[in-house]
Structures are given as C-alpha cells and as structure tokens.
Amino acid sequence: MPQIQQLPPHLADLIAAGEVVERPASVCKELLENALDAGASAISAELERGGLTYIRITDNGCGIAPEQLPTAFLRHATSKLRRPEDLAAIGTLGFRGEALAAIAAVSRVDIFSRQTGADCGAMLHLEGGVPESVTEAGCPDGTTVCVRDLFYNTPARMKFMKKDSAEGAAAAGVVTQLALSHPDVSFKLLRDGQEILHTPGDGQLLSAIYAALGRDFAAGLMPVSGSGGTVRVEGFVTKPLAGHGTRGRQLFFVNGRLVKSQLLSAAVEEAYRNRLLKGKFPGCVLHITLPVSEVDVNVHPAKTVVKFLSDKTVFDAVHYTVKDALDREGQPAAGEKKPFYQTMTAQEFRETTPAPQGVKLPFVGGRPVGSAGADRPTVNRFAPAAPTVQTPRQTVRPAAAPQGDVWQVRDAVPEAGKAFTVPSGQEGVVYRITPPDAPEDSPAREQAAAEAETVPAAVMPEAAGANDTTLSAPEAAPVQQELEMPETADSGETPWRIAGEVLKTYIICEDGEQNVWLIDKHAAHERIRFDALKADPVPPMAQQLLTPAAVTLSAEEYGAVLEQLDVLAGYGFLCEDFGDGTVLVREIPDYIRAEDAAATLEELARKLLLQRADPDGARDELLHTMACKSAIKAGMTTDAAELAALVREVQSGAVRYCPHGRPVAVKLRKYEVEKMFKRA
Predict the structure, then answer these.
(1) Do residues 148 and 67 make contact, with C-beta atoms less than 8 angstroms apart?
(2) For the chain, where do the domains classified as CATH 3.30.565.10 start and end?
(3) What burial letters (b/e) apply to 187-205, b meaning 16+ CB within 10 Å?
(4) Residue 111 vs residues 143, 201, 216, 434: alpha-carbon distances, Å
(5) What are the helix and strand counts (H, E) for the chain?
(6) What is the CATH architecture of 220-326?
(7) Which residues make up the CATH 3.30.230.10 domain(s) of the chain?
(8) CB atoms within 10 A of CB 239
(9) Which residue, 86, 160, 586, 672, is the most exposed by fewest CB within 10 angstroms?
C-alpha cells in the first residue's frame, strides 16, 4: 500500500517553481512587477539568448535592507500583505510572496540592493534556491537582480522551451505591456546587446504607445475619457478606419494591472457596432480605474484574470465612453470655426431658406422649364456616332425672319467654273445646288424638283448671329445581352440548369427534380480549395513578392509565428524575423493575391496562437485560412464556366458544408416555392 510522506523541501520548491516560472517571460514579469511596487521611476531589462542564459532587471526603487535579503527569497515572504483583510483590497502588482523563491529554485541568482541614503549596498548569491552569506557591495540606489542559467536543474522544463527568438519576443511583450500600464515609468529593454525599447516615462500614455507599439498604430488612435459610477476610463482607441485583423491590439489595464477580459473586449466591440469593416477588430489601450475593494485579482495564478463587483457598471462605463468618443469623431469642437468652404449645414439651409410658396414650374422631359440647361439640346453620349461627310458649303442666313410659317426651297444651277452666289433680296429662300453639267432628265434634277416643296421653319437655321447646334442621333433601344449557361451536367445523369446569379454571391440553380438551389459560391469554392489543399501532399508553388510585406503582430502572435516558421514555409509562406514584433513575408503561395499577404499572415498568426498545443488542429486552421483567402469572394464577378464548375461539385454531392461548418447550398422544393405564392 502506498505510503503518504511529506515531500523534501527542495522538491516542493521545484514543483512550486513550475507553477510560477513557465518561461523567461514569467521571470521578467515577476521581477518587473516587484520593481514597480518598489516605486521605481526607471527600469532596465537586459536579455541574452531569449532570457535562458541571462536576465538582468535594474530599478531605482526603494531597495532592500541587507538583513532582509535572505528573507526575501523565502516562500510566502512579502512586504505587501499583513492581515487577511488586505486580500480584499490589493493595490499592488505582486502579493503572494512566491516569485523570488520560485525563480531562485530553478536558476542561479545574484541580487544587489541599496536603500536610499545608505552608505553602501548589499549582495546575495543563490544557487538552486540555496542562499550564501550577504556581503557588502558598491551599487546604485535601488535593486538589481541577475538570473543566469534558467532551468539548469530542471531539464524536463528546459526541453519545452522554444527558440531563442520566440522566447525573447515573449519577454519583450511583457516589458511592452508593463510600459503601457505605467507611462510615468521609463522602461529600457536590451536584447543581445541591442536596444529594443525605450519609453520616455513622461507620464503621457500616447508617448508610451508611440515608443512601444509604433508610429503607425499611434497615428490611428483617438483619445477617450469618461466615467460611470465609481469607474473611470482613460486611454486611446483606434479610429473606425484603422481596424485590425485580430484582437491582439486590445490592451486593458485595471488599476495598473494588465488583464484579459471578455467583458471589456465585448464592451469596446459593441461600441464599434456598424462602424468597422467585416472581419476587423478595434484596437485600444484603456486604463480602467476603480476602488480596489470592487475588484478581485486573487482568482488566477498568473494574475491576468480579475472579477468585478458589478460587471454591468464596468461594461457600461467602458461602452459609453468609447461610443461617445466615436460619435464625436469628425464633429467640430465647441467654439471651433467651420472650414472656409462650409458656411452652413444642409439642415441649417433648409431651416433658414424656406422654399417659395405658390410657384410651380412646369416640367418638360424631366426638366423644369426655365431651369439651367432646359433649353439646351440633349446629347446622347452613348448613341452610335452618325457618319459625317465633309463637303465645302456656304451657309446662307436670312437677314430677317421670313414672313409666314414656311421656308421656300428652290433649285439653282451655277455657271460652269463659277461658284454660286445668292441673289440679293432673296431672304427666306434655300437653294439646292445642282451640278451644271447634269442633263435635264438626270436623277439629280428630278430629285431637286421633287423636293422643291415648303419646309417648316423649325428645321431651318436660327437667326443671324446664333451658334450652330448639332443634334445627336436618337437613342437606341437597350439591347439585353444574355449570358449562356450550361443547362446540364457533363455526365447527363442528373440534369441541372443555372438560372442566374444574384447579389454577385448566390447562384440560382434548378435540378432535374424541379428543386431550386441557392448556392453560396464563396463557401462552395472555399470547401473545394480546402479539400484540394488537404489531399495534396506536394507543397504549393510560391511566388516572390516584389516588395516584402511587413506585418506587425502582438507579442504572443509574434512568438507563435517564430515557432512555426518551418511549418509556414511548407505551405508556401517564406517569412523571416524582422525584430520588434514585425515579420517580413517574402514569398506566398501562388493562389494567394499579393495584396492579401499581410491579412493572411495576421489570421494565420492568430490561429497558430489558439492552436499552439494541437499540431493537427493548427494544420487544419492553416488550411482553412489559405482556402478562404484563395476562394472566390462574394461580390466578385464570376464567369459562366466557373459558376458551372461550382454547381457541378454541389450537385454531385461532394460539397455540402464549408470548412467552418456553414451550409454551402439551400434547397427549395417546388412545393415549398409554390406554397410561398399560395399556389399549393
């Protein structure tokens, strides 16, 4: 029978360390939070090989007394809690007293600390959690912690570490998040001797965002400020046109602590309803401040999950603060002058300038008489141009309007070799010129005689001095062009006919059993592409981008992509680490459009992060994304051959659902259609 016994202290410390210290990023987080709790105004972090071989955190905080250095590395030793009642009002980042003990248990630690006003500092060395004696040391005010050879005594944990670039990216993400949580503190990050991050620490959140997340992200932000009850909301949100492909740019800080909350994310996204493009998510950096007694941070070992005393109060405060800022966007501030081109709004014009009463203008041909352009001839720009013949002619205009309602047409024969001149005093007479050498019974003379009739004045030239007006040919009747569609499948076993396409998205088809099908062409093509990619073991052909696409990701997504660079290369995506959370895409599969390279990688990064622990699921998610991006898009024009191919696959029964589980087609029986029209 198994015997129950107490674990040795060293083994218990290793087990506890595994719960607190997951990777180098966990070490950075715990040490940086201790520095912030110590009141530091400047913090420096230095990493080598992603933090696996060397981590150094330096701050200018209050420091630790020499006699308290060994106590600081004991389990559950802390200066931040005194009574059980303190758990109900935690105002510090760290409070459990396990961080230093867990870090020392799996590494070699050197700590230097000097209190403000002390003559000298103190130094303590620990190896595997075992402390040596405290010695005097020269050091600046504050505390410096050096962690070497992380997990040297726990090889089981060491083999689960990722590449140095991935671990370094995760640690950099932690530093970035803490820099945004405390804009009044200057943060500096060095990776392998290179400065990655340096915030000014001027107390301006926008300055920290600019330094930590980049200029492009900061340029697309707008400030928000508001409150509801005891909840205060401050920060920045992205403009509606600056949406992102993932939620990785949504950062929430509750009383200075980074939290992951579906409640806060839903509040922000609800404020953006009907303001963002489909598939885009808002970004934000929001600080939520509320009494410490109304939030519980002691619900998760990672301290990233909190519970609120009133979820509705917090939701409403965040939602309406963001919504009010979005409603005010683009409107002039109080007292702000309108642009020089905007004297009044349309509503102001309607209120100050009422329409005249009792005056109605008759309409002729859809245009009011007397309006601008009413008397101008209408020119049909789409009518076929009539052939013109360039012949030399002399325009004869009458000096005065003719008497009566008709013009006279007379035949005239000029003398041979001389030009014809109009006799004086013959106003209102139009002459038809006949060649002088034409015989008496020639067709020209007969035509001239037959047409020697009176002509209405409306078809004659205008008064002298008016411009010539060219009238267009009458508008031709529209010609309906029919698109030929195949009526039956190639096999001929199951006849079907394509009736058309509506909304450039859905195909209407009729099968041989008098059923009507509505087929989503994007979903059908996506399923076909997914099955083809999954069944083809040969890597796709890649196309090199003329200009590499630079994609900036969140820290977690950045690390997930760096871990799976080989996997992405197997699917035609040649990517490389550009540093500072940015990945360069140099090659993409040949069926992915170049303009979709960045958006595709963003979606792939999000899915790789979600399926980190499931390689098979990650592979399917990659194929889903690639199939979606390469499929026919809704709203795109599709030719008849492509429509026929899609319908053929659906009618054969090979395609029923898209990779995400949505139906590809909806079938309506003849009885159901007739029932809609009260025929059945």
Answers:
(1) no
(2) 9-198
(3) bbbbbeeeebbebebeeeb
(4) 7, 25, 39, 118
(5) 19, 28
(6) 2-Layer Sandwich (3.30)
(7) 220-326
(8) 16
(9) 160
* Residue 473, token pair as written in the block: 């040919």
CA–CA dist 201, 374 (Å, integer):
68
Using CA atoms, how far apart are residues 111 and 131, in angstroms rounded to an integer?
11
The label of the residue with tokens 């989503």 reads: 520
Distance CA 176, CA 198 (A): 10
Length of the chain, in residues: 680
Query: Any residues with CB less than 8 A from the CB of 645 and at least 6 apart, and which?
Result: none
As a whole number of angstroms, the distance between CA 620 and CA 624 comes to 6
Query: Of 37, 111, 25, which Cα lies nearest the Cα of 70?
Result: 111
Give the residue among 34, 124, 112, 28 at the shortest CA–CA distance from 71: 124
pTM (2 decimals)? Answer: 0.56
**Superfamily for domain range 9-198:** Histidine kinase-like ATPase, C-terminal domain (3.30.565.10)
pLDDT at res. 391: 45
Q: What are 596-626's pLDDT values in tens digits?
A: 888 888 888 887 887 665 666 667 777 777 7
Cβ contact 498:513 at 8 Å: no
Q: Phi/psi of residue 256, each to 5°?
A: 80, 5
C-beta neighbour count of 287 within 10 angstroms: 19
Tokens of 40: 């530091």
Rounded to an integer, what is the distance from CA 119 to the centroid of its chain?
A: 56
What dotted CATH number matches 496-667? 3.30.1370.100
Residue 54: name the closest of 169, 193, 180 by CA. Answer: 193
Beta-ladder partners of 290:
none
Distance CA 170, CA 87 (A): 30
Contact at 8 Å (CB) between 34 and 177?
no
According to DSSP, the β-strands at 42-48 and 186-191 are parallel
Q: Which two tokens stand for residue 579?
A: 């540093």
Check if the beta carbon of residue 194 is closer than 8 Å to that of residue 48. Answer: no
**Residue appearing with tokens 């009133």:** 310
As a whole number of angstroms, the distance between CA 217 and CA 247 comes to 14
Q: What is the tens place of the pLDDT at every residue in 454-472?
A: 444 444 444 444 444 443 4
Q: Which of 527, 489, 536, 537 lies closest to 509 in space, CA to CA?
A: 489
Q: Judge contact between 599 and 588, C-beta under 8 A.
A: no
pLDDT at 440: 56
pLDDT digits (tens, 9 = 90+) for 226-260: 998 899 999 999 988 888 888 888 999 999 989 98
CA dihedral 524, 527, 531, 536 (to 10 degrees): 90
Please give the DSSP secondary-structure letter assigned to residue 419: -
The answer on pLDDT for 393 being more than 90 is: no
What's at 580, amino acid-wise? D
Place of tokens 């570490």: 161
Nearest residue to 658 via CA among 638, 631, 677, 618: 631
Q: How large is the C-alpha radius of gyration of the chain?
A: 41
pLDDT score for 290? 93
User: Which residues, including other chains, have CB under 8 Å from residue 625's CB and lie 6 or more apart?
Assistant: 600, 603, 604, 607
pLDDT of amino acid 418: 60
**Which one has a higher pLDDT value, 99 or 210?**
210
End-to-end CA distance of the chain: 77
3-class DSSP state of 409: strand
